[in-house]
Specification:
The structure holds two protein chains of two kinds.
Chain A (H helix, E strand, L loop, with lengths): L11 E2 L2 H4 L3 H8 L15 H18 L7 E2 L15 E9 L2 E10 L2 E7 L12 H4 L1 H5 L8 E3 L5 E3 L1 H17 L5 E5 L5 H13 L4 E4 L6 H11 L3 E5 L6 E5 L10 H11 L9 E6 L4 H5 L2 E4 L2 H18 L6 H5 L8 H11 L5 E5 L5 H13 L7 E5 L9 H13 L5 E5 L3 H4 L6 H5 L4 E6 L4 H4 L3 E4 L8 E4 L5 E4 L12 H8 L6 H10 L4 H11 L16 H13 L10 E7 L12 H5 L7 E2 L4 E3 L1 H7 L5 E7 L2 E9 L7 E6 L28 E13 L3 E2 L10 H12 L2 E3 H6 L27 E6 L8 H9 L7 H5 L8 E7 L6 E7 L8 H5 L5 E3 L5 E3 L9 H5 L6 E2 L10 H4 L14 E2 L5 H13 L12 H5 L5 E5 L6 H7 L3 E2 L11 E4 L1 E3 L17
Parallel strand pairs in A: 8-9, 8-16, 11-12, 11-14, 12-13, 16-17, 17-18, 21-26, 23-25, 29-40, 30-39
Antiparallel strand pairs in A: 1-31, 3-4, 4-5, 6-7, 6-18, 10-15, 19-20, 21-27, 22-28, 23-26, 24-25, 24-27, 30-37, 31-32, 33-34, 35-36, 38-39
Helix pairs in contact in A: 7-19, 8-14, 8-22, 11-13, 11-14, 14-22
Chain B lengths: L16 H27 L1 H4 L13 H7 L4 H4 L14 H8 L10 H9 L5 E2 L12 H5 L5 H5 L16 H9 L22 H12 L13
Helix pairs in contact in B: 5-6
The chains are: A alpha/beta, B mainly alpha.
Chain lengths: 1008, 223
């Protein structure tokens, strides 16, 4: 078998330190707990400890030998239908940058504690992303704004009555002047209620300006569509029908309004058992999740992506006679196209009507036009690509232009009153506009926002906004479906929604509930319809019909002609490209105070608590920049010093920076993390530009990176390299079709003999399987687990020592040459070994194996020897080195899941297969005298996974999904040669490389 | 006894120590055992918990309501069949009767105030398990464990007191031998239940019929 002995070139490596076997990497490999707890945060000496212990024993004697009296406090009048202790679930929706996510939120005794996806909603299909999972923590953020603040002179706490009185008078005066010298700055929203009120306010204040700003914007796609079709439309992709997917700087699996659905469709298209696999090509500068899943990825600076798109179009038109209309005639010859473009074109041309060319939102509008032209030419429109009308067709200016117009108006002293609904423009407006200084010129500045952020500090009125989990609102998703946001809890700090504020300004104050119900009543039938709408979270059959659009030749020509003729920038080590991307954890900076998101290791870089300037390997080498160096980025007359991060697979001559860190008014968690990259961004190039120069400063910065933590050691480096391909087992689709059992031949496991008697499992036998073919690395499972199991946040210092507490980690491996590295991902949590090494060494019996196959932890018995973690070959046990749950503010304690113990210092913890959910389901089933049904128990990670990569269930039930998946021929156990008999199995990843491209990873000759 | 202190290199017991040698060594050996035994008994749940009878803000008498009047446990403790917590009734439940019954009683002043103002009555918790223990009432009540098996004859208590230690060993005893306490599900709230036949026989039969296999895994209660 050619696949049996892989060459060391095909070995997997976690990081460049791993590849180079540097001392930094060995430090983590050799000592799982480096730098032991010799560094106490509080200087409690041993003597003092004994003194305190002695005192407390004496006090215990005095107190009466029983714990303190506890009160039990019922309602005075319990709401009908509720039972304390029984959680309830409500459907709601929320928007992030105007893109809708549909949720089911679990509420325990009146407080929301866990977010799930709404399984009835076609956009989420029951899944969520990491931003949604972290919503509950944002709700209980103790740094949230609690009071209205009057900052006309100084900074005084005020209340709504004071604001309402001021507003009534002020806006009455403005109404008399028809809204002269008044401007509104809003965020992108699809909410029909807010738009209805906007129309009302525009009626009353016709001269007022309306501006919309989103720092992370999809407007290039919008204007591109408008240019191509004559009106803006949303592009919907149906990946279930696509066999060839080409993404040009487009992260369609993670950064897209319909990402959850697309990821699910993509994953289903990867199941080789169901037929042929789809094939994904990615052309991008930084490493996105789509690039990680790609069968072929080409690292190309963002400025040159469009060039390749032109080449692709030229080849399609020239050699495959794809009808590209007027664009075909404008394109140059296809001689300059590299071989891979030709192969891609061939692949696309062979799959007309079953292919997709996707262009990302950071690419200029002409690229989008070209994408539409190519899709139309390939016959994809109506099959894999559909168009629907946008929810806000009347918006004229793009976000970038809009904020520029507002800044101009402010600089020219044309405005007295500015009302800002949400957002944080003082922090995230392009630096070239100097928005902070401009804003100061208006006499009255009103800001409605959830936290008292940089913009609020610069305004004369700060108004607390209701968090999305406290709000009544409505949404229209990208398919046009109508949904309602219903609150899970009354506003904790009496916040208001933007719609309510607009109503106040219009002089017709109403509660948000009334406003939304008024909008909804025009769509639903009466009270029953309203209740059904609330229960389901969406209005059935309300999606928009596909917009029938056709390409406009003039539009296409206007876009393609100058683009084809334009010269691309000459990138070099002294003229680099800078690319501004959304932060995978903080989005645009609004989640800076959310500790779960700050500590979430970014999938590709594994960075926590900071952002960094991402460099490709060869560019960094040429510049002499090492990982962690502080470099000075100079662009467009502005400079910023940032830490550098060398990312294998990043394009050369390109530097990616993520936006959102470096906040100055975010709260205790969010201030001072990372670097303020908005300070570099210019209004004329919001997405990317050349003209960046990088120079070293000689200083270094500690980046808390988890990539080398918990590395599974395997008898030395040589052995590790030889065996690295057994942690992740990968094959190609071709190999799978020829040898479906290729997984068994990848490694040789000697006959396994157990020292202990193995026991049988008659009842339930819980097990799990993780499909590496489907996991995209989106990180939603990590946050979901944290939310469900009360996992603490430890802070940057502790993370840098390898003490992050996430029970499930996403291991990301690179493979191949550093500049063109491929990525493989593997979610690892406790695999619940039958012959668990940890159970065998616990001196106090705190961890034992249950009768149903779970490796359980009894926290109260653990004394903290850490022997179990030492023995775990998967390195999945986490130790509470400090009491991370001490000093948590009272509001934030409301986020804890009461069904799970909160661990104190000195206690070991790990994944429990969500035992609280298992027990809950078992008790329900027993009470109803029936066995637990398959699918009734979903672990937190499983429930939130967009691609359903994780499956949990009863292995003893032959009809359960998990039993069938475990019997799958791609299935293997991690570290099976240790005979620990894990209950979690993995399914090998399959890549589907194009046989005509030389990157096939197996030794077969290329043939169709 | 004259001794040159600077020459002395080792300690010598005075002669009278011989006489007290045996009693002293017995006490030295027995003292830790005694102290440990004392501490064990002091912290034994039977000592610290059984009989705990805190004073409640409202002098509610179970003996009157559950005993004399015969109100079923579940009338007030509604969560006991649906969830983990049995729940204490809201003031509104009291007012179901007391809106018309004993409306002038001083003892009910707090209850009436609570209903009027919406401020809850703060009862003192009697049966309290540590936070790392997750007990589920419905799993027991729905399967045939009587209220009195764990809570005792509440219908005879003027003031509620803790009947059993509720420590882990006590729970495990029943989990290992549920036959000793099982009863038909419709008899769960009956106080002073006497089975028609021998408890163990009845229990074994019920166990078989309803497939009752209480788990003794740690994860059953410790999550």
């Amino acid at each position: 078998m050619s696949s049996l002995n892989k060459s060391p070139d095909q070995a997997y490596w976690r990081s460049l330190e791993d590849l180079g076997d540097t001392p930094e990497f060995r430090q983590f490999l050799d000592a799982e707990f480096p730098a032991e707890a010799e560094v106490p945060t509080d200087a409690l000496s041993r003597r003092r400890f004994l003194q305190l212990m002695g005192a407390s024993v004496a006090m215990a004697g005095a107190a009466g030998c029983r714990w303190p009296e506890e009160k039990i406090v019922p309602f005075a009048s319990r709401p009908e239908g509720t039972d304390p202790g029984v959680p309830r679930t409500y459907a709601t929706n929320w928007e992030l940058g105007g893109d809708v996510r549909s949720l089911l939120v679990t509420s325990y005794e009146g407080r929301p504690i866990k977010v799930e996806g709404n399984p009835d909603h076609p956009l989420s299909l029951g899944a969520t992303d990491s931003y949604s999972q972290a919503l509950v923590l944002g709700l209980y953020d103790p740094d949230r704004s609690k009071r209205v603040r009057d900052r006309h002179k100084g900074d005084h706490a005020a209340d709504w009555a004071a604001f309402d009185a001021w507003a009534a008078e002020h806006f009455a005066g403005l109404k008399a002047r028809r809204g002269d010298r008044l401007a509104f700055l809003v965020e992108r929203t699809s909410s029909p209620t807010t738009r209805r009120l906007k129309a009302r306010v525009q009626e009353l204040f016709p001269a007022a300006g309306w501006y919309e700003w989103e720092p992370i914007s999809r407007d290039n796609a919008r204007t591109g569509a408008a240019l191509a079709f004559g009106k803006p439309v949303e592009t919907g992709l149906d990946l279930s029908r696509a066999k060839v997917i080409a993404c040009f700087d487009a992260d369609i699996l993670n950064d897209h309004p319909a990402a959850l659905r697309q990821a699910r469709q993509f994953a289903e298209g990867r199941r080789a058992e169901h037929g042929s696999m789809n094939r994904l090509y990615a052309v991008e500068a930084d490493y996105s999740l789509t690039g990680g899943m790609a069968d072929h990825r080409y690292a190309v600076p963002a400025s040159l992506v469009g060039e390749h798109l032109l080449q692709l179009a030229a080849v399609l038109a020239g050699e495959h006679h794809v009808d590209l209309g007027v664009a075909g005639s404008l394109l140059h010859g296809s001689d300059h196209a590299p071989a891979w473009i030709r192969t891609l074109a061939t692949d696309l041309a062979h799959h007309r009507g079953a292919s997709v060319v996707a262009v990302g939102p950071r690419q200029p509008e002409w690229c989008h036009v070209l994408g539409h032209v190519i899709n139309a030419g390939l016959g994809n429109v109506g099959a894999t690509v559909t168009y629907t009308d946008v929810t806000d067709p009347e918006r004229g200016a793009t976000h970038g232009a809009s904020i520029g117009l507002l800044a101009d108006a402010l600089h020219d002293n044309r405005l007295d009153t500015v009302v800002i609904l949400g957002g944080n423009p003082v922090f995230d407006a392009p630096a070239s506009l100097d928005f902070g200084a401009a804003l100061a010129k208006a006499a009255h500045r009103v800001h409605l926002s959830v936290d008292d952020n940089e913009t609020s500090k610069a305004c004369t009125w700060h108004l607390p906004r209701a968090h999305v989990l406290e709000s009544w609102a409505d949404v229209r998703d990208v398919d046009g479906r109508y949904g309602v946001t219903q609150p899970l809890i009354r506003p904790l700090y009496d916040g208001r929604t933007p719609a309510e504020l607009l109503a106040v300004i219009a002089g017709e104050p109403r509660s948000a509930h009334e406003l939304v119900k008024a909008t909804a009543s025009s769509l639903v039938g009466g009270e029953d319809g309203w209740n059904t709408l609330l229960q389901k979270g969406l209005l059935a059959d309300s999606e928009a019909r596909a917009a029938s659009v056709s390409l406009r030749a003039e539009g296409v020509a206007a876009a393609v002609r100058p683009a084809a003729a334009a010269r691309r920038p000459e990138l070099s080590d002294t003229n680099l490209e800078i690319q501004f991307v959304r932060d995978p954890a903080l989005y645009d900076g609004r989640f800076a105070n959310n500790a779960w998101l700050q500590e979430l290791p970014d999938f590709m870089t594994k960075l926590t608590w900071d952002n960094a300037a991402l460099f490709g390997v060869s560019t960094a080498g040429a510049l002499g920049v090492k990982h962690g160096d502080v470099v000075s980025l100079a662009y467009d007359g502005r400079t910023l010093e940032m830490a550098a991060y060398i990312l294998p697979g990043h394009a050369s001559h390109s530097v990616t920076v993520s936006l959102g860190h470096g906040r100055t008014a975010a709260g205790q968690v969010g201030e001072g993390t990372g670097f303020p990259t908005y300070a570099l961004r210019s209004a004329k190039a919001l997405d990317f530009s050349d003209g960046l120069t990088v120079s070293k400063t000689g200083r270094t910065y500690l980046l808390a990176c988890t990539q080398d933590h918990f590395a599974i050691d395997q008898k030395g480096k040589e052995e590790r390299e030889k065996r690295s391909h057994t942690l992740i087992i990968e094959g190609t689709a071709q190999e799978y079709h020829e040898h479906p059992d290729f997984v068994e031949h990848r490694r040789h496991i000697p006959p396994l003999v157990s020292l202990w008697e193995e026991r049988g499992y008659d009842g339930y036998a819980w097990g799990m399987t993780v499909d590496l073919n489907s996991c995209t690395g989106c990180n939603a499972c990590v946050v979901a687990c944290q939310a469900e199991n009360n996992i603490p946040v430890v802070g940057k210092d502790q993370v840098s020592r390898g003490r992050e507490m996430h029970w499930i980690r996403l291991d990301r491996y690179f493979q191949g040459e550093p500049d063109e590295a491929k990525v493989a991902q593997q979610p690892v949590a406790c695999v619940h070994c039958e012959m668990a090494p940890c159970e065998q060494v616990c001196p106090v019996g705190a961890t034992m194996h249950s009768e149903e196959g779970l490796n359980v932890m009894a926290y109260n018995r653990c004394v903290g020897t850490r022997y179990c973690a030492n023995n775990c070959p998967y390195k999945v046990r986490r130790f509470n080195f400090y009491n991370y749950n001490k000093d948590i503010p009272e509001t934030q304690r409301m986020v804890y899941n009461p069904e799970v113990t909160i661990r104190a210092r000195g206690v070991m913890e790990k994944c429990t297969y969500c035992v609280q959910r298992i027990e809950h389901a078992k008790i329900q089933a027993k009470n109803e005298n029936r066995p637990v049904r398959d699918g009734e128990i979903t672990t937190a990670c499983q429930q939130t996974c967009p691609t359903q990569a994780i499956v949990f269930g009863d292995l003893n039930d032959p009809n359960s999904r998990v039993a069938k998946e475990t019997a799958n021929q791609r299935s293997y156990h991690l570290l099976a040669e240790l005979n620990v008999k894990p209950r979690t199995s993995y399914q090998a990843r399959l890549r589907n490389p194009n046989p005509d491209l030389a990157e096939s990873s197996d030794g077969h000759d290329g043939h169709h | 006894m004259e001794q040159n202190k600077s020459d002395r290199t080792s300690f010598e017991f005075p002669k009278w120590a011989n006489a007290v040698r045996i009693p002293v060594s017995l006490m030295a050996a027995g003292a830790p055992v005694f102290v440990l035994g004392l501490l064990y008994l002091a912290f034994w749940p039977g000592t610290t918990s059984v009989g705990y009878q805190p004073q409640q803000p409202v002098p509610y008498s179970h003996a009157l309501h559950a005993g004399e009047l015969g109100i079923d446990c579940r009338y007030c403790h509604t969560g006991v069949e649906v969830g983990a917590k049995a729940t204490i009734p809201p003031t509104a439940t009291c007012m179901n009767c007391h809106a018309t019954v004993r409306t002038e009683s001083e003892k009910l002043q707090l209850v009436r105030d609570s209903y009027a103002t919406g401020e809850p009555v703060e009862w003192v918790r009697v049966h309290d398990l540590p936070d790392f223990v997750f007990f589920n009432h419905s799993a027991h009540v729905e399967r045939g464990i009587g209220c009195e098996s764990c809570h005792g004859r509440v219908d005879q208590m003027e003031v509620v007191s803790q009947f059993a230690g509720l420590n882990m060993g006590w729970c495990l005893k029943c989990h290992r031998e549920p036959e000793a306490h099982l009863r038909p599900v419709d008899q769960v709230t009956v106080m002073g239940y006497e089975p028609a036949e021998d408890q163990l026989t009845l229990g074994a039969r019920l166990r078989e019929a309803r497939n009752i296999n209480p788990s003794v895994d740690c994860s059953t209660c410790h999550r």
